[in-house]
Amino acid sequence: MKTQRITSIKRLLLVAGAATVLGGSLTACFPLVLGGAAAGALVAIDRRTSGAQLEDEGIELRAMSRLRDAIGSRARVNVTSYNRQVLLTGEVLNEQDKQLVEQVVAKVENVTGVVNELAIINSPTLVQRSSDVLITGQVKALLIDSRDLFANAFKVTTERGTVYLMGRVTQREADRATEVARSARGVQRVVRILEIISEEELRRLLPSRGAPAPAAPPAAS
After folding, report:
1. What's the pTM?
2. Where are the beta strands (DSSP E) in the chain?
3. Residues 149-203: tens digit of each pLDDT
4. Measuring CA to CA, which residue among 115, 110, 51 is closest to residue 79?
5. HEC states along 93-144?
6. Which of 114, 115, 117, 151 qualifies as a FRET site for 64, CA 20 to 30 Å off?
7. How far apart, in whole angstroms, are the C-alpha atoms of residue 119 and residue 52?
8. What is 158-170 written as a DSSP string?
């Protein structure tokens, strides 16, 4: 019963977080969206150092500011940074703007790499953007329900039905999380932007973060 109550609380927090993202992303005032801004609802173990977490937040904020100056409101760009690697999602009107966004972000201090997934199309409809928010919330909930995964080792972003997974994880965790994400309703494909670490490195990392190991997956018969 206690486990069920904890799971229910986590789900409620996820719904609240999704609602916050939905409310912010559907307002027309700011076309540039800060990636992962609503994830603070869950106090969680993070495999990045505290310094890297602060740098990622700074990268997102600086990138947004510079993109506003460079491209204004003619594009909708989501900036998501994990361990100094930046994912760009959203929509631009042409190839020139797509390359401009990448160049601006690549010059932001502490950025080590940029994955440019911007689409050259008109902005998605309200229905599509709402669907993406719900897919993200559903994937996060499924990761929490998976006892063989640390849900908060992953950063989840969704654009036009494509789920992007970021994080520092083992190959086993990467494959399992991909399987979980694909099972969510409405997911068209899953793109992994993951830093793969060894199982030994994970074992060294866990005690330093004070986190228990997740339950092992059932043995194959």
Report:
1. 0.76
2. 32-34, 76-82, 85-92, 113-116, 119-120, 154-159, 162-169, 189-196
3. 999 999 999 999 999 999 999 999 999 999 999 999 999 999 999 999 999 999 9
4. 115
5. CCHHHHHHHHHHHHCCCCCCEEEECCEECCCCCHHHHHHHHHHHHHHHHHHH
6. 151
7. 28
8. EETTEEEEEEEE-
